[in-house]
């Protein structure tokens, strides 16, 4: 069975073609700047590469046709016929409260995506464009939707309700939804398998740390709380997002400083976080260089704030689950920034959380056990693979 995994944004399509026999990626790439005069196309397989080729790609349909043409190319392709693709698995962002698992995409699912577009105005319409494009280019091919929010639908009311007048939830569905669900699900399952444990016997804290960042408390295989909320802005400090702040700051910006709603939205989503505090970059590699080589005070302070906020969420989720068995670091920052892991886990030995610093600072690919021998809590670095998780759920659904 071969699955085509798509992640469709408003002007981009990321893709991977995965064979389920051995989970090998046959081809992967990205179409960028769709609808612009200088769209970019990147394609990679074992036999053929296209690196950032500039061209005109008018819409998502043309983008998917381009991808398919390369997959089927008689000389450099990786499949002989488009019918070799058993199904298409889509990364979809927001399902509201409608779905808690992967679903076969049909008219009802598309309608639900439209209804939830008010909650994800940048993402859901783009997801629908991707689905429509596949219908045009690959008619009859089963499509499966795997939602970022689905994994978090197991959260209890006490975790997902905001302390606002209840009518806002009852009428507008304003509540915590959470994101990065596919990643948190993948790494928690992978960690349990690595430990040769049943996930239902474990209490796991998963730290997905990248330019966007979130933490999830996973008890007995289910998400019981997560740091992102109604939108991906809530929770941890991130690359350019502020995360948790006093909501009255927004009122202050508007009433006292005459900022518009658009001004404020731009500040809290695109100019805050590591970029805003460091005044250098949202790229953690540049932050670490500024600390180590330049002893930059702003960079050091920004990283301390970032690490401290992660520490607080870990402590809160240990309390929420009455303990923890495993702490996972994943995502581009979580997997690659040893200094951050050290800062986050410092002064947690009273909880039985002890990092093996020697192992932590030696880069190794794959899953790595970072726990000290005396640690009562397992500390793991687990590379995330959302595309493989989507492919697995897609294959399972169409088989059944």
- The secondary structure category is alpha/beta
N-to-C SSE series? EEEEEHEEHHEHHHEEEHHHHHEHHHEEH
Can you count the helices? Answer: 15
Principal-axis shape equals: globular
**For the residues shown, what is the average pLDDT?**
95
Provide the domain count.
Answer: 2
Spans of 5+ residues with little confidence (pLDDT < 50)?
Answer: none
Distance between the termini: 14 Å
What is the CATH-assigned architecture of the largest domain?
2-Layer Sandwich
CATH topology of the largest domain: Nucleotidyltransferase, domain 5
The main sheet orders its strands as 5-4-3-2-1-6-8-7
CATH level-4 homologous superfamily of the largest domain: ATPase, nucleotide binding domain
* Strand segment tally: 14
Could you characterize the architecture of this molecule?
The chain has 400 residues and is α/β, with parallel strands linked by helices. It has two domains: 2-147, 2-Layer Sandwich (Nucleotidyltransferase, domain 5), CATH 3.30.420; 197-386, Nucleotidyltransferase, domain 5 (2-Layer Sandwich). It is built from 15 helices and 14 strands. The protein has helices at 60-71, 107-115, 124-137, 157-160, 167-172, 181-194, 248-257, 261-270, 273-278, 284-294, 297-321, 331-336, 338-345, 357-360, 386-399; strands at residues 2-8, 13-19, 24-32, 39-45, 49-55, 85-92, 103-104, 143-147, 203-209, 213-219, 222-226, 326-330, 368-369, 378-381. The strands form two sheets. The protein has an eight-stranded mixed sheet, sandwiched between helices. It has a six-stranded mixed sheet with strand order 11-10-9-12-14-13, sandwiched between helices. Strand 1 and strand 2 form a beta hairpin. It is globular. The mean pLDDT is 95.
